[in-house]
Amino acid sequence: MKRLFTIVCLLLATLTLPAQYRRPPYGDLYESVTVAAMREDVRFLASAALEGRKAGSEGEREAARYVSSRLEEEGVDVLTGPQGEPFGIRQENGDTLSSHNVLAFIPGYDKSVADHYIVIGARLDNIGTYELTIDGEKVTRICYGANGNASGLAMLIQLASMLQRNKVLLRRSVIIAAFGASCMLGAGSWYFLHRSFS
Fold this sequence. Notes:
Blueprint: H1 2-21, H2 33-45, H3 58-73, E1 77-78, E2 85-90, E3 96-106, E4 117-123, E5 129-134, E6 137-142, H4 146-165, E7 173-179, H5 187-194
Parallel strand pairs: 4-7
Antiparallel strand pairs: 1-3, 2-3, 3-7, 5-6
Helix pairs in contact: 2-4
């Protein structure tokens, strides 16, 4: 009986000891600086204060300032200044909608291909707000845009940071772009391709 008791105690000890030291899968992921920074970026970019970042809105301009400052914090050379590169879109009613692209640059080390560029971009704007009628009352709803595209911008910032830290490995140069007015027929990316460096 004493021998059986000893065996049971040893068996229980071997089963419970490893469980005490087992780490949850991906445990470090939730504690990483990168994930915390991305959460903070998405929290700001998808906040109610930016009112959905509609093209031409103050929320989109604030998002451009935020992305520009975050890229600078990460040590990436921002080409377009704190406001981004302004451009205008003529609308059907004749008015001009003003938007902004944020462009940054990471140079490649190989002089033979450093003037060949890899462009990595994300959409800066979202669809903004919309009105609907609920029980006869007009209500304004915000399309916060966490997945359209605050998460993409957060990833863009982190990717730019990682490329900047490892730029000695880059043969070609990299342009980081946050395109404004993308929900309006890709206007920011069109402007970048046809006007930005001409």
